[in-house]
Automatic annotation (TrEMBL):
This is PilZ domain-containing protein. Residues 35-108, 125-210 form the PilZ domain. It comes from Aporhodopirellula aestuarii.
Length: 222
């Protein structure tokens, strides 16, 4: 899939939108660099991407000698297969022998390419990685609210959780969440929407102790 320049309007609207890479086992990336008349391939790992550029983690012997390169991105399903020319514009050492490089595209990418990468589950807007769980939990509401009889914790991160409930919860409502192992933490509802005959809601942890308790319990379970 070719990388095409976006229209000026869409570029303005999307140039600051960065999408975090996910499912890196399905997302294959490499930098192609010309060295002494040979094209050298450097496997790399996508960190994030926007229509104007991306960040990649790669091990380069002499990064100061490299500036112009071609980035190839593809996924195992074959839905995404694109090459973009660009320039390495910054680097930050992240581990021994590996740096994170900023890669600025020569021309803006068509925003539809990123939309497709989102649809394929290769990149996400979320800043925090989420882990899918799908486990039954208990939710305790403040006195006066209808009791939640059935609730499922669908996924979690270091900052919050996504829940399915048989009762419609209220935005800003505070809940006490208890996992099957007995770990508890307090969360605050940020958004609610219908989901079949249930309701889906996104919640954030009220404090660090709650975040640690729930994350530790669910990580140990998985």
């Amino acid at each position: 899939m070719p990388a095409n320049p976006s229209t000026p309007g869409s570029a303005q609207n999307r140039s600051c939108d960065r999408f975090r890479a996910r499912n890196t086992e399905n997302l294959i990336a490499e930098l192609l660099v010309l060295q002494e008349d040979d094209v050298v391939r450097h496997p790399c790992q996508m960190a994030d991407i926007s229509v104007g550029g991306c960040a990649v983690k790669v091990s380069l012997a002499h990064p100061e000698e490299m500036s112009v390169a071609v980035l190839r991105i593809r996924d195992k399903s074959g839905a995404i297969d694109l090459e973009v020319a660009g320039r390495l514009c910054w680097n930050q050492q992240t581990s021994v022998g590996s740096n994170t490089f900023g890669f600025r595209f020569r021309r803006l990418m068509d925003g539809k390419v990123i939309d497709q990468m989102v649809a394929e589950g290769l990149v996400t807007r979320r800043q925090e990685a989420r882990t899918t769980v799908g486990t039954k939990i208990q939710l305790r509401r403040a006195h006066g609210h209808p009791t939640v009889k059935v609730a499922t914790l669908e996924d979690f991160s270091t900052t919050g959780v996504r829940i399915h409930s048989d009762q419609e919860l209220s935005v800003t409502e505070r809940l006490l969440l208890t996992t099957p192992s007995g770990a508890s933490g307090s969360v605050s509802v940020k958004w609610v929407k219908p989901f079949g005959n249930q309701f889906e809601c996104g919640c954030i942890f009220q404090n660090l102790n709650s975040a640690r308790a729930i994350n530790d319990a669910l990580t140990a379970r998985s």
